[in-house]
Automatic annotation (TrEMBL):
CDD domains: NAT_SF (cd04301). SUPFAM superfamilies: Acyl-CoA N-acyltransferases (Nat). This is Uncharacterized protein. Residues 1-33 are annotated as: Disordered. Coiled coil: none annotated. It holds the Pfam family Acetyltransf_CG. It comes from uncultured Arthrobacter sp. GO terms for molecular function: acyltransferase activity, transferring groups other than amino-acyl groups.
Length: 116
């Protein structure tokens, strides 16, 4: 990752909730919540390629940082990852706070999440 933060090994995330996306990526994109590390991790064909870090407290989830490996930028991975994170927040009845510019922009462009 460009920040030097390495996502967990895919084998370490079996307890996480998984969803998949398709927005312009080639291959199978899987997004896994890894609560013990407070992050969603995006895997493309099993390889970690991005993450969305968060803080969770008192029914509020704040997304603090979103990053995708430079090699995989521009393929819609971050967008698919945040779509999955928003679906999870909705399912868990969490209030969403955009603590990073990517999530702030995402929410402005996706009014279907305005109730969060």
């Amino acid at each position: 990752m460009t920040s030097g933060t390495e996502p967990a090994n895919p084998a370490d995330t079996s307890a996480g909730e998984q969803t998949t996306g398709s927005g312009g990526t080639k291959g199978q994109l899987t997004v896994t919540d890894t609560p013990e590390k407070s992050r969603y991790i995006a895997y493309l064909d099993g390889t970690p390629v991005g993450l969305a870090a968060y803080r969770l407290a008192d029914g509020v989830i704040e997304y603090t940082h979103t990053i995708v490996d430079e090699e995989f930028e521009g393929r819609g991975i971050a967008t698919d990852m945040i779509h999955s994170a928003m679906a999870d927040a909705r399912e868990r009845n969490l209030k969403v706070v955009a603590g990073c510019s990517f999530v702030e922009h995402f929410l402005a462009e996706n009014p279907q999440y305005s109730d969060l």
